[in-house]
Amino acid sequence: MSKHVFCSDLCLERGEPLAGTGDAPKRVLMLAWPRGKWRVPRWESVDMSPELSKALHEAAKAKLHVALVDKVEAESRLPTLHALPENIYADFTDETELIAAIRDYIAGGVFVGTRDTRPTILCCTDSRRDACCARHGFSTYKALVRIADPNKFNIVQATHLGGCRFAASLVVMPQRQRYGRMTAEHAEGFLDAIGRNDVYLPTYKGRTDEPQPAQVAELAALKWAAENGVATTAVALGGKIPEKAQEGDRLTLEADVLGARLSIHMHAQDFLVQGNCGVVAEGGGDITLRWCIDEVVAQPKAPAPS
User: pTM for this structure?
Assistant: First the structure.
Protein backbone atom coordinates (compact mmCIF):
# COMPACT_ATOMS: atom_id res chain seq x y z
CA MET A 1 0.00 0.00 0.00
CA SER A 2 1.41 3.39 -0.98
CA LYS A 3 2.01 6.02 1.68
CA HIS A 4 -0.61 8.77 1.93
CA VAL A 5 0.63 12.11 0.59
CA PHE A 6 -0.90 15.09 2.40
CA CYS A 7 -1.88 18.10 0.32
CA SER A 8 -0.91 20.46 3.16
CA ASP A 9 2.63 19.05 3.18
CA LEU A 10 2.95 19.57 -0.57
CA CYS A 11 1.59 23.10 -0.28
CA LEU A 12 4.26 23.95 2.30
CA GLU A 13 7.03 22.29 0.28
CA ARG A 14 6.08 24.33 -2.78
CA GLY A 15 6.16 27.54 -0.77
CA GLU A 16 2.65 28.61 -1.67
CA PRO A 17 1.85 31.66 0.48
CA LEU A 18 -1.11 31.77 2.84
CA ALA A 19 -1.65 35.52 2.35
CA GLY A 20 -4.16 36.50 -0.30
CA THR A 21 -6.64 33.64 0.22
CA GLY A 22 -8.84 35.41 2.76
CA ASP A 23 -12.24 35.45 1.06
CA ALA A 24 -14.86 34.27 3.56
CA PRO A 25 -18.54 33.45 3.03
CA LYS A 26 -21.06 36.26 3.43
CA ARG A 27 -23.81 34.08 4.91
CA VAL A 28 -23.39 30.85 6.85
CA LEU A 29 -26.10 28.46 7.97
CA MET A 30 -24.93 26.02 10.68
CA LEU A 31 -26.93 22.88 11.38
CA ALA A 32 -26.08 20.78 14.44
CA TRP A 33 -25.29 17.23 13.29
CA PRO A 34 -23.09 14.56 14.95
CA ARG A 35 -19.60 14.50 13.46
CA GLY A 36 -19.66 10.73 13.11
CA LYS A 37 -22.60 11.03 10.71
CA TRP A 38 -21.03 13.59 8.37
CA ARG A 39 -20.68 12.52 4.74
CA VAL A 40 -19.73 14.06 1.38
CA PRO A 41 -21.69 15.92 0.16
CA ARG A 42 -22.92 17.12 3.54
CA TRP A 43 -26.62 16.98 2.59
CA GLU A 44 -26.27 13.22 2.20
CA SER A 45 -25.16 12.68 5.79
CA VAL A 46 -26.39 9.72 7.84
CA ASP A 47 -29.95 9.91 9.26
CA MET A 48 -30.81 13.00 7.21
CA SER A 49 -34.27 12.81 5.68
CA PRO A 50 -34.71 13.38 1.94
CA GLU A 51 -36.67 16.55 2.67
CA LEU A 52 -33.96 18.04 4.89
CA SER A 53 -31.25 16.97 2.42
CA LYS A 54 -33.12 18.76 -0.36
CA ALA A 55 -33.42 21.97 1.69
CA LEU A 56 -29.68 22.00 2.50
CA HIS A 57 -28.83 21.32 -1.14
CA GLU A 58 -31.04 24.26 -2.14
CA ALA A 59 -29.18 26.46 0.33
CA ALA A 60 -25.81 25.43 -1.10
CA LYS A 61 -27.00 26.10 -4.66
CA ALA A 62 -28.15 29.55 -3.50
CA LYS A 63 -24.48 30.29 -2.61
CA LEU A 64 -24.99 30.04 1.15
CA HIS A 65 -22.26 28.27 3.06
CA VAL A 66 -23.96 25.30 4.74
CA ALA A 67 -21.96 23.85 7.63
CA LEU A 68 -22.80 20.81 9.71
CA VAL A 69 -21.36 21.47 13.16
CA ASP A 70 -20.64 19.54 16.34
CA LYS A 71 -18.79 20.21 19.58
CA VAL A 72 -17.13 18.25 22.36
CA GLU A 73 -17.86 20.42 25.39
CA ALA A 74 -19.97 18.31 27.76
CA GLU A 75 -21.38 21.28 29.66
CA SER A 76 -23.23 22.82 26.71
CA ARG A 77 -25.03 21.86 23.54
CA LEU A 78 -25.49 23.32 20.11
CA PRO A 79 -28.74 24.91 18.93
CA THR A 80 -30.35 23.19 15.96
CA LEU A 81 -29.83 26.04 13.52
CA HIS A 82 -27.56 29.10 13.64
CA ALA A 83 -27.47 31.88 11.02
CA LEU A 84 -24.44 34.10 10.45
CA PRO A 85 -23.63 37.00 10.18
CA GLU A 86 -26.96 37.70 11.88
CA ASN A 87 -25.80 35.52 14.80
CA ILE A 88 -29.33 34.23 15.43
CA TYR A 89 -29.91 30.69 16.65
CA ALA A 90 -32.95 28.55 17.43
CA ASP A 91 -33.99 25.01 18.30
CA PHE A 92 -36.52 23.08 16.22
CA THR A 93 -38.24 19.90 17.37
CA ASP A 94 -40.38 19.72 14.24
CA GLU A 95 -38.47 19.03 11.02
CA THR A 96 -41.09 20.77 8.91
CA GLU A 97 -40.48 23.99 10.85
CA LEU A 98 -36.70 23.51 10.52
CA ILE A 99 -36.95 23.12 6.74
CA ALA A 100 -39.22 26.18 6.55
CA ALA A 101 -36.61 28.20 8.50
CA ILE A 102 -33.85 27.08 6.11
CA ARG A 103 -35.89 28.05 3.06
CA ASP A 104 -36.82 31.38 4.63
CA TYR A 105 -33.11 32.09 5.14
CA ILE A 106 -32.39 31.17 1.52
CA ALA A 107 -34.99 33.77 0.51
CA GLY A 108 -33.26 36.44 2.60
CA GLY A 109 -35.28 36.22 5.81
CA VAL A 110 -34.08 35.24 9.26
CA PHE A 111 -35.99 32.86 11.50
CA VAL A 112 -37.11 33.90 14.97
CA GLY A 113 -34.51 33.01 17.57
CA THR A 114 -31.98 34.22 20.11
CA ARG A 115 -29.10 36.56 19.32
CA ASP A 116 -25.60 35.37 20.23
CA THR A 117 -23.18 38.16 21.14
CA ARG A 118 -20.09 35.95 20.91
CA PRO A 119 -17.95 35.52 17.81
CA THR A 120 -18.37 32.07 16.26
CA ILE A 121 -15.19 30.19 15.34
CA LEU A 122 -15.69 27.37 12.83
CA CYS A 123 -12.81 24.89 12.72
CA CYS A 124 -12.86 22.35 9.90
CA THR A 125 -12.41 18.79 11.16
CA ASP A 126 -14.02 17.13 8.13
CA SER A 127 -12.10 13.88 7.76
CA ARG A 128 -14.63 12.67 5.19
CA ARG A 129 -13.59 15.51 2.88
CA ASP A 130 -9.85 15.61 3.48
CA ALA A 131 -7.26 13.83 5.62
CA CYS A 132 -5.41 17.10 6.33
CA CYS A 133 -8.49 18.55 8.02
CA ALA A 134 -8.61 15.56 10.34
CA ARG A 135 -4.85 15.58 10.86
CA HIS A 136 -4.61 19.26 11.82
CA GLY A 137 -8.17 20.37 12.46
CA PHE A 138 -9.25 18.26 15.40
CA SER A 139 -6.12 18.92 17.49
CA THR A 140 -6.49 22.65 16.84
CA TYR A 141 -10.19 22.54 17.71
CA LYS A 142 -9.57 20.69 20.97
CA ALA A 143 -6.83 23.14 21.95
CA LEU A 144 -9.16 26.10 21.36
CA VAL A 145 -11.98 24.51 23.34
CA ARG A 146 -9.69 23.58 26.19
CA ILE A 147 -8.60 27.16 26.92
CA ALA A 148 -11.48 29.30 25.63
CA ASP A 149 -14.07 30.90 27.88
CA PRO A 150 -17.38 29.56 26.48
CA ASN A 151 -19.06 32.76 27.59
CA LYS A 152 -16.85 34.72 25.20
CA PHE A 153 -16.40 32.36 22.24
CA ASN A 154 -18.67 29.97 20.36
CA ILE A 155 -16.30 27.35 18.97
CA VAL A 156 -17.57 24.53 16.75
CA GLN A 157 -16.06 21.81 14.62
CA ALA A 158 -17.44 22.07 11.10
CA THR A 159 -17.68 20.31 7.78
CA HIS A 160 -15.59 21.47 4.83
CA LEU A 161 -14.70 25.18 4.88
CA GLY A 162 -12.39 25.23 1.87
CA GLY A 163 -8.63 25.56 1.69
CA CYS A 164 -7.82 22.00 2.76
CA ARG A 165 -4.19 22.47 1.67
CA PHE A 166 -3.93 25.17 4.35
CA ALA A 167 -5.29 22.98 7.17
CA ALA A 168 -6.19 23.59 9.85
CA SER A 169 -8.73 25.97 8.29
CA LEU A 170 -10.87 28.29 10.40
CA VAL A 171 -13.48 30.98 9.77
CA VAL A 172 -14.47 33.63 12.33
CA MET A 173 -17.98 35.04 12.01
CA PRO A 174 -19.56 37.57 11.85
CA GLN A 175 -16.16 39.24 11.27
CA ARG A 176 -15.67 37.17 8.09
CA GLN A 177 -12.04 36.36 8.85
CA ARG A 178 -10.28 33.33 7.38
CA TYR A 179 -7.29 31.59 8.93
CA GLY A 180 -5.08 28.73 7.79
CA ARG A 181 -2.16 26.58 8.90
CA MET A 182 -3.50 26.80 12.44
CA THR A 183 -2.09 24.48 15.08
CA ALA A 184 -2.74 23.90 18.75
CA GLU A 185 0.27 26.12 19.51
CA HIS A 186 -1.55 29.09 17.98
CA ALA A 187 -4.66 28.71 20.14
CA GLU A 188 -3.82 31.12 22.96
CA GLY A 189 -2.58 33.96 20.76
CA PHE A 190 -5.44 33.47 18.35
CA LEU A 191 -8.13 33.68 21.04
CA ASP A 192 -6.44 36.72 22.56
CA ALA A 193 -6.57 38.55 19.22
CA ILE A 194 -10.17 37.54 18.44
CA GLY A 195 -11.20 38.58 21.96
CA ARG A 196 -9.82 42.08 21.23
CA ASN A 197 -11.73 42.13 17.93
CA ASP A 198 -8.38 42.08 16.16
CA VAL A 199 -6.84 39.75 13.58
CA TYR A 200 -4.30 37.08 14.45
CA LEU A 201 -1.49 37.88 12.05
CA PRO A 202 0.54 34.60 12.06
CA THR A 203 -2.27 32.61 10.42
CA TYR A 204 -4.48 35.34 8.89
CA LYS A 205 -5.21 34.90 5.19
CA GLY A 206 -6.18 38.46 4.31
CA ARG A 207 -9.13 40.82 4.17
CA THR A 208 -12.19 39.28 2.55
CA ASP A 209 -13.58 40.74 -0.70
CA GLU A 210 -10.31 42.53 -1.55
CA PRO A 211 -8.17 41.66 -4.60
CA GLN A 212 -5.37 39.23 -3.85
CA PRO A 213 -2.54 41.81 -4.16
CA ALA A 214 -4.34 44.14 -1.74
CA GLN A 215 -4.78 41.33 0.77
CA VAL A 216 -1.10 40.45 0.49
CA ALA A 217 0.07 44.05 0.81
CA GLU A 218 -2.18 44.92 3.74
CA LEU A 219 -1.09 41.83 5.65
CA ALA A 220 2.57 42.62 4.97
CA ALA A 221 2.03 46.15 6.29
CA LEU A 222 0.28 44.89 9.42
CA LYS A 223 3.12 42.45 10.08
CA TRP A 224 5.68 45.23 9.58
CA ALA A 225 3.79 47.39 12.08
CA ALA A 226 3.69 44.57 14.64
CA GLU A 227 7.39 43.81 14.22
CA ASN A 228 8.29 47.49 14.64
CA GLY A 229 6.13 48.14 17.68
CA VAL A 230 3.51 50.18 15.83
CA ALA A 231 0.03 49.49 17.18
CA THR A 232 -2.41 49.70 14.29
CA THR A 233 -5.31 47.83 12.75
CA ALA A 234 -5.77 50.29 9.87
CA VAL A 235 -3.65 50.42 6.73
CA ALA A 236 -4.20 52.87 3.87
CA LEU A 237 -3.06 51.32 0.58
CA GLY A 238 -2.08 53.19 -2.57
CA GLY A 239 -1.09 52.13 -6.05
CA LYS A 240 -2.86 50.58 -9.03
CA ILE A 241 -3.68 46.90 -8.95
CA PRO A 242 -3.59 45.30 -12.41
CA GLU A 243 -6.72 43.59 -13.66
CA LYS A 244 -4.65 40.78 -15.17
CA ALA A 245 -1.21 39.42 -14.38
CA GLN A 246 1.14 36.65 -15.41
CA GLU A 247 4.08 34.90 -13.83
CA GLY A 248 7.07 37.19 -13.42
CA ASP A 249 5.06 40.40 -13.21
CA ARG A 250 6.11 42.74 -10.42
CA LEU A 251 4.01 45.14 -8.41
CA THR A 252 4.67 47.78 -5.78
CA LEU A 253 1.91 49.07 -3.53
CA GLU A 254 2.27 51.86 -1.01
CA ALA A 255 0.93 51.69 2.53
CA ASP A 256 0.63 54.40 5.16
CA VAL A 257 1.12 53.08 8.69
CA LEU A 258 1.07 55.87 11.27
CA GLY A 259 4.50 57.55 11.04
CA ALA A 260 5.84 55.56 8.08
CA ARG A 261 5.20 55.04 4.42
CA LEU A 262 5.85 51.52 3.21
CA SER A 263 6.73 50.38 -0.29
CA ILE A 264 5.58 46.79 -0.58
CA HIS A 265 7.28 44.96 -3.44
CA MET A 266 5.84 41.68 -4.71
CA HIS A 267 5.95 39.38 -7.69
CA ALA A 268 3.49 37.06 -9.40
CA GLN A 269 4.35 33.36 -9.37
CA ASP A 270 2.62 30.25 -10.64
CA PHE A 271 2.04 27.37 -8.23
CA LEU A 272 0.69 23.90 -8.78
CA VAL A 273 -2.35 23.89 -6.51
CA GLN A 274 -3.78 20.56 -5.39
CA GLY A 275 -6.68 21.62 -3.23
CA ASN A 276 -7.14 18.40 -1.29
CA CYS A 277 -5.59 15.00 -0.78
CA GLY A 278 -7.96 13.40 -3.27
CA VAL A 279 -6.63 15.61 -6.05
CA VAL A 280 -3.09 14.64 -5.05
CA ALA A 281 -3.94 10.93 -5.18
CA GLU A 282 -5.46 11.35 -8.64
CA GLY A 283 -2.47 13.31 -9.92
CA GLY A 284 -4.59 16.38 -10.69
CA GLY A 285 -4.18 20.04 -9.88
CA ASP A 286 -4.28 23.51 -11.40
CA ILE A 287 -1.61 26.09 -12.10
CA THR A 288 -2.64 29.14 -10.07
CA LEU A 289 -1.09 32.60 -10.02
CA ARG A 290 -0.20 33.88 -6.55
CA TRP A 291 1.35 37.16 -5.39
CA CYS A 292 4.43 36.78 -3.20
CA ILE A 293 6.18 39.40 -1.07
CA ASP A 294 9.75 40.36 -2.03
CA GLU A 295 10.42 43.09 0.52
CA VAL A 296 8.86 45.88 2.54
CA VAL A 297 10.79 49.14 2.50
CA ALA A 298 9.92 51.83 5.03
CA GLN A 299 10.49 55.59 4.74
CA PRO A 300 9.43 58.31 7.17
CA LYS A 301 6.29 60.10 6.05
CA ALA A 302 6.93 63.64 4.91
CA PRO A 303 5.54 66.21 7.38
CA ALA A 304 2.37 67.99 6.35
CA PRO A 305 3.03 71.48 4.92
CA SER A 306 2.58 74.24 7.46
Answer: 0.93
